[in-house]
Amino acid sequence: MKRKTSTKVKEGAIETLLLLSALSSVFITLSIVFILFYEALGFFKDVSLWEFLTGKQWTPLFAQPKFGILPLVTGTLLVTGIAVLVALPIGIIVAVYLSEYAPFKIKEVAKPVLELLAAVPTVVYGYFALLFLTPILQRFIPNLSGFNALSPGIIMGIMIIPYVSSVSEDAMKAVPMHIREGSYAMGATKFQTAFKVVIPSAFSGIAAAFIIGISRAIGETMVVAIAAGMMPNLTLNPIESIQTLTAYIVGVSLGDVPHGTLEYKTIFAAGITLFLMTLSLNILGFWFRRRIREVY
Fold first, then answer.
1. Residue 261 burial by Cβ neighbours in a 10 Å radius (0-12, 13-18, 19+)
2. Could you give the C-alpha distances from 202 to 162, 164, 199, in angstroms and in order?
3. DSSP letters of 231-278?
4. What is the mean pLDDT of the chain?
5. Domain extents for the chain?
6. Residue 263: what pLDDT?
């Protein structure tokens, strides 16, 4: 009887601890959102929302400040788009090879080595883009700026390959073997089975990998801060210098701007924009995964 009572007490304590852990994560998330909106409220008291969303110049630290967020948003989307174009096809190809083709010994070595890319500090990636990749690209693109969107975009794509390939490969491994066997029984080759049967069957997990990779690219800071420049240009030209939302937040947060000023509060306005972009992306990904599951 005492043993049962002791077991119940221990299970109750563990359950309470787990509940508190879950609630703490929810509380931290809500606190971050509250602080962002509360601090940004002071910014929007002095700057109209219309000017913020439609303005084409972002110069809050100038003598005649302009507060149009579009240059930072386009810079963020430009670098993210380049990273996605690099990471998604390579990540899917790597995932298909590891899931369908690679022998067990190669898989056991290749997957941990690939995931080591995620352990490299982003500062290293930034200087690699600036000092190694940019000079190489300038040989092929003579008018490429020393600070540009192309080089950090490519490096960010390489950086997020492990996220895309690892999650996609796990999703493909979860596809039941009898689906593959049914495809082989119908006369399909391994290539046809991989791309016409396995990938569609695992597409909800692959979509999750895409969302993780894109969110990681949008939120990247150091690579773009080092290699993309700090020029908030409203452009979609990848060979020009740009500035992203995260790079601007880092630049202002270094301590040169007095705390509590309108210029300082711009980082919270930029933070809200970044938060809403990633939130919208995750909601879209959730909806897309549900639709895919209904189809398949």
1. exposed
2. 18, 13, 5
3. -------TTS----HHHHHHHHTTTTSPTTSHHHHHHHHHHHHHHHHH
4. 85
5. 2-46, 70-295
6. 83
Q: Check whether 295 has a pLDDT greater than 60.
A: no
CA distance 86 to 78: 13
String of b and e for 31-60 (b: at least 16 CB within 10 Å)? eeeeebeebbebbbeebeeeebeebebbeb
Phi and psi at residue 81, in whole multiples of 5°? -60, -40
CATH topology for 70-295 is MetI-like fold (1.10.3720)
pLDDT tens profile 113-143: 887 877 888 889 999 999 999 999 999 888 8
Angle at 156 between CA 228 and CA 232, to 5 degrees: 25
pLDDT of residue 7: 75
Instruction: List, for residues 27-59, the tens digit of each pLDDT value.
Output: 998 898 898 888 888 888 888 888 888 888 888
pLDDT score at 4: 66
What are the tens digits of pLDDT across the range 216-261? 888 888 899 888 888 888 888 898 899 999 988 888 877 667 777 8
H-assigned helices in the chain: 2-46, 49-54, 70-96, 104-115, 122-128, 134-140, 150-173, 177-185, 190-193, 199-201, 203-218, 222-227, 245-252, 262-295
**What's the token pair of residue 23?**
């609630």
Q: Give dist(CA 153, CA 242) in Å, integer.
A: 11
Angle, helices 70-96/262-295, rounded to nearest 10 degrees: 40
Residue 67 backbone dihedrals phi, psi, to 5 degrees: -125, 40
User: Is-contact 219 185, C-beta < 8 A?
Assistant: no
Q: Which residue has the higher pLDDT, 212 or 148?
A: 148
Burial 109-131 (b: 16+ CB within 10 A, else e): eebeebeeeeeeebeebbebbbe
What span, in angstroms and rounded, lies between the C-alpha atoms of 229 and 240? 9
- The residue type found at 56 is K
